[in-house]
């Protein structure tokens, strides 16, 4: 029997719980104040347009919908970016963030044999599975410092420096999951210096563009900084969170190459990997009140959809077993799953669990 998934397994357990007080803070997904799934108005509008136009159900090309690929690359880099103008980006529509990461992992396994990927400690739970399944060796770089509840910048830099030349460095473009802690612009400069010095290849996971600052452009500045330095890089994109399109599986893998010719060849190889894997992608036309005195200011400082509460595994289990509040065992809660009405209940559960 395979163990339940650390994130989606939480939703399965939540569905099976019959207690009326139950609250699911495990999965990162928008909820209404009534805690029902929330569909954005812009999505409803687009769906209506699609129905009116009578869109067909033809297969997409292996690389996906051309108009989507153009739009997604432009959203990431900015339409005027030289990498777009010079046609140096190979963009292939993937099966959302996960599928796009998996496609890139297969590409790395095939064309960079023996290269390792460095991932942050901690990171989104599925990264390790993705690289394990693609048989790409990985190790971790220091990221989170529990003493300061902040970034272990020195540790991060020295681990990236110590990695064998030509390693892939997996970076969260913005709104780091699960910590909600991002490098500052000055720190990004330093990170890109070290990556460039060591001939490493940056590999961005952009699952929260727009979530960190509210600006799509500002949230892409980390990626754009690396592209502006003339580096070759990988960027996986997901529209699950910023458009609330969890079920549609909309995303892309972008590879910035040194020339238009290299980009065309990289794209052809990505398609070659995608075809036997899944053929073609899906159609995309488309403050807790506190009675305990504990300092909760980190919730406001951390950005993105999640809060890394600092609850350990036992405390997280108490939250679920006693209070019917579902969260991942690393203490991460999705604030999008909370309603105003449930805040006080959650605060009581957390205070009880801390003791
Ligand atoms: N990357 C990160 C950091 C994530 O948090 C997630 C989802 O939670 C994903 C990628 C992939 O999500 P999806 O496959 O739904 O696009």
TrEMBL record:
SUPFAM superfamilies xref list: PLP-dependent transferases (SSF53383)
Q: Which Pfam families match?
A: Aminotran_1_2 (PF00155)
Q: Name one GO biological process term.
A: amino acid metabolic process
- Keyword ATP-binding set for record: no
- Assigned EC number: 2.6.1.1
Q: Which GO terms describe its molecular function?
A: L-aspartate:2-oxoglutarate aminotransferase activity; pyridoxal phosphate binding
Please list the cofactors this protein needs.
pyridoxal 5'-phosphate
Q: Which UniProt keywords apply?
A: Aminotransferase, Pyridoxal phosphate, Transferase
Keyword presence, Transferase = yes
Please report the stretch or stretches of sequence annotated as the Aminotransferase class I/classII large domain.
21-284, 289-350
The chemistry this enzyme catalyses reads: L-aspartate + 2-oxoglutarate = oxaloacetate + L-glutamate
Q: What else is known?
A: In eukaryotes there are cytoplasmic, mitochondrial and chloroplastic isozymes.
- Relate the assembly described in the record: Homodimer.
Q: Which family does it belong to?
A: Belongs to the class-I pyridoxal-phosphate-dependent aminotransferase family.
What this protein is called in its record is Aspartate aminotransferase
Organism for this UniProt entry:
Salix purpurea
């Amino acid at each position: 029997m395979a163990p339940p998934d650390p994130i989606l397994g939480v939703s399965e357990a939540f569905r099976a719980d019959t207690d009326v007080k139950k609250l699911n803070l495990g999965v990162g997904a928008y909820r209404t104040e009534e805690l029902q799934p929330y569909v954005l108005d812009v999505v409803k509008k687009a769906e209506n347009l699609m129905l009116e136009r009578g869109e067909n159900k033809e297969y997409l090309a292996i690389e996906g919908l051309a108009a989507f690929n153009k739009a997604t690359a432009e959203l990431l880099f900015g339409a005027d970016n030289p990498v777009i103008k010079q046609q140096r980006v190979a963009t292939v529509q993937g099966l959302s963030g996960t599928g796009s990461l998996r496609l890139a992992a297969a590409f790395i396994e095939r064309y960079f044999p023996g290269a390792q990927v460095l991932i942050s400690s901690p990171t989104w739970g599925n990264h390790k599975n993705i690289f394990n399944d693609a048989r790409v060796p990985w190790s971790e770089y220091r990221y989170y410092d529990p003493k300061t509840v902040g970034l272990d910048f020195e540790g991060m830099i020295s681990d990236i420096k110590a990695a064998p030349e030509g390693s892939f460095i997996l970076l969260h473009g913005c709104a780091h999951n699960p910590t909600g802690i991002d490098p500052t612009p000055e720190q990004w400069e330093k990170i890109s210096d070290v990556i460039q010095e060591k001939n490493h290849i940056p590999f961005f996971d952009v699952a929260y563009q727009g979530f960190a600052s509210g600006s799509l452009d500002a949230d892409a500045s980390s990626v754009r900084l690396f592209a502006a330095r003339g580096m070759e890089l990988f960027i996986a994109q997901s529209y699950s969170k910023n458009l609330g399109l969890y079920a549609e599986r909309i995303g892309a893998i972008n590879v910035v190459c040194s020339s238009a010719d290299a980009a065309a060849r990289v794209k052809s190889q990505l398609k070659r990997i995608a075809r036997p894997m899944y053929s073609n992608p899906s159609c995309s036309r488309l403050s807790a009140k506190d009675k305990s005195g504990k300092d909760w200011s980190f919730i406001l400082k951390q950005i993105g959809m999640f809060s890394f509460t600092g609850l350990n595994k036992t405390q997280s289990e108490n939250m679920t077993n006693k209070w019917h509040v579902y969260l991942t065992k690393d203490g991460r809660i999705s604030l999008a799953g909370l309603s105003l009405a449930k805040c006080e209940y959650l605060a009581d559960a957390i205070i009880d669990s801390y003791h």
